[in-house]
Amino acid sequence: MGDVLAGFHAVWEFESDSVLIRFERGIRSPKLFQALGERRVPLEAIAGVTLTQGRRGTVVLRAVPRPGADPLTEAAAGQLKEGADPYRLVLPADRHSLAEHCADELRSLITEDDTPAERFLVAPPETPLHFKAYDGKASFDGRVVSFRWSWTGASSAKWKAGDQSFPVSALSGVEWRSPEALDGHLRLLRRDATAAGAGRQVPPDQDPGAVVFGLGYGPVHESLPFAAAVLAAVRTAGPSAVPAATPAARRDPADIAERIRHLGELHKAGLVTDEEFSTKKAELLAEL
């Protein structure tokens, strides 16, 4: 096609086999768009195209993603607000004719197919990724998801379990609940049927395979790309070829001392037994 369509917060470049979406950076641009930067959407990942009237003298061009084609929309599971939808391009009403032309051209190139794609067709966000949740820090290097608990927010159950690391080959999926909802969290679904079943029954604040969000913690533009990258890696990895464990890095002695202090507070409060206290303290000291 070769057409370029510039709207609010993004520019769409129409190519013969894909649409390149370049998101603008700016104070008014949604933070999710800024985090994504740009995305190339193959035509086979588009199930349809719509052009509708928008608010305050605007028109909205939207590419309808094919189910299962984009890890970001799969992880979001319909929870994104309209203004943060990366498949919407809002334009001034005076560009309606150009938008209509691009929509018609795009319809002529795609096969309107809403059957689920067998694999992800849109590239996931690049790793490494990390974000700060209310009860810990989450990081993903492309192979392993790690949760490091915060002494100010993590529950005693998570402290007892200790910091967690999950190779993607041990996971079956990711459950993301928007931080804009009351129960916002990111939960890793384990391939082990017992663990996965138990995990869904345990509240996220008690599940060592989950981190919980809160005001200012796990914002959409950080936690959703994280969830999408993990989901894409899980779908690619399969259940075999678990990465070999790597030696744990030595911890900061001050950090270990702070963790032991907090563990002692849990012990005094009766939330940790004598045996659990002794065992966990020994584990922490061994990391020095």
Quickly list its features.
single chain, 288 residues, four-stranded antiparallel sheet, 14 strands, SHOCT, DUF4429 domain-containing protein
Could you walk me through the main structural features you see in this protein, from its secondary elements to its overall organization?
The chain starts with a strand and ends with a helix. Helix 7 (253-268) runs antiparallel to helix 8. It has a four-stranded antiparallel beta sheet with strand order 1-2-3-4. Strands 8-9-10-11 form a four-stranded antiparallel beta sheet. It has helices at residues 31-36, 71-76, 96-109, 156-161, 193-201, 220-237, 253-268, 274-286; strands at residues 4-6, 10-14, 18-23, 38-42, 46-53, 58-65, 88-92, 129-132, 136-140, 144-149, 164-167, 171-177, 185-190, 210-212. It is 31% helix and 26% strand. It has three domains: 4-109, PH-domain like (Roll); 129-243, PH-domain like (Roll), CATH 2.30.29; 247-288. The longest helix is centred in the C-terminal third of the chain and has 18 residues, at 220-237. It contains eight helices and 14 strands. Residues 12-106, 138-230 form the DUF4429 domain. Pfam families: DUF4429 (PF14472), SHOCT (PF09851). InterPro entries: DUF4429, SHOCT.
